[in-house]
Design a protein that fits this description.
single chain, mainly alpha, Ferritin, 2 strands
Length: 296
């Protein structure tokens, strides 16, 4: 089962200027072939399907624990997209003029029509995420090798999206996920070394450019985030320590942190009357909420 904490894994800047076209590009990192939906569902189903887990407990713990972190990464990318879409209407009155005219000119009109200026479970071209992106073979080495490949494919695409936009929300999210993806790639590489003796992790980084080249990622590395593997459970997944130990290739000791990162406050999006969100008159909504609180 899962325990949800109502915080983002990092603090994101407040929405400023909207950029729907850049938000469409960021969608690739959510619902694309190498997006966070794919990392989440690959690792989740591999953990569900792994047989004989009692004999390979450190590897099961690693996959299951990283899968849980990926839930928060989906939340973070969705929050980024939502922040980049906030304020993208031309006025607030649905009955006056064409307040959604900007949507007709945007790359992904679904953001305006289908989700009310919200993130979609799809890629940068508007195509939905697909279940056949999941690779769960039942063979531990194959699954770990796939995960190593998946994390590096995701890194390549994050770097390309970074070069597409300088929006402050997107850049902050990308800096953090470049670092966390590096942790996962190294963890899977070390797991493969434990199983096979092959030092796959020595291929890192792929592409051959350090995260420190990106100012936002460098800030998280200076906090030691690249050396930390968070354990997303009060009592379980303790055997990740058998894999995540020793020295980081960049220097410094690897560390398993009990519990989730402190993170930042949840995103509180303003109302968007032009897309009828949340769809209840503000005065009525406040009255309903007050009544519910009084009766609780």
């Amino acid at each position: 089962m899962f325990l949800r904490i109502d915080r983002l894994q990092i603090e994101l800047p407040m929405p400023s200027e909207p950029d729907p076209d850049a938000a469409a590009a960021v969608q690739e990192l959510l619902g694309g072939r190498f997006g966070e939906m794919s990392t989440l569902m690959n690792y989740t189903y591999q953990s569900f399907n792994l047989r004989g887990r009692d004999r390979v407990k450190p590897f099961y713990d690693l996959i299951a624990n990283i899968a849980t972190e990926e839930l928060g990464h989906i939340e973070l990318v969705a929050a980024t997209i939502n922040g980049m879409l906030t304020g993208a209407t031309d006025g607030d009155d649905p009955a006056a003029g064409t307040p959604l005219a900007r949507g007709a000119r945007s790359r992904n009109t679904h953001h305006f029509i289908a989700s009310g200026l919200g993130a979609l479970v799809g890629n940068s071209m508007g195509q939905p995420w697909r279940g056949d992106y999941v690779f769960s073979s039942g063979d531990l080495v194959m699954d770990l090798l796939h995960n190593f490949f998946l994390e590096n494919g995701a890194r390549l695409q994050k770097m390309r999206v970074y070069e597409m936009t300088d929006h402050p929300i997107a850049r902050q999210m990308l800096g953090y996920l470049l670092v966390r993806g590096g942790v996962h790639a190294l963890a899977y590489g070390k797991a493969l070394e434990s199983l096979t003796g092959v030092e796959v992790w020595k291929l890192l980084p792929i592409p051959k450019i350090d995260n420190s080249a990106f100012p936002e990622a460098r800030a998280f590395e200076e906090q030691g985030s690249h050396r930390k593997l968070y354990r997303f459970s009060p009592d379980d997944y303790r055997h990740v320590q058998a894999i995540w130990r020793g020295e980081h290739p960049q220097g410094g000791a690897l560390e398993v942190v009990d519990g989730a990162p402190e993170g930042g406050p949840p995103q509180v999006l303003p109302e968007e009357p032009a897309v009828f969100s949340p769809g209840v008159h503000p005065g009525e909504l406040e009255e309903i909420a007050s009544r519910l609180l009084r009766s609780s």
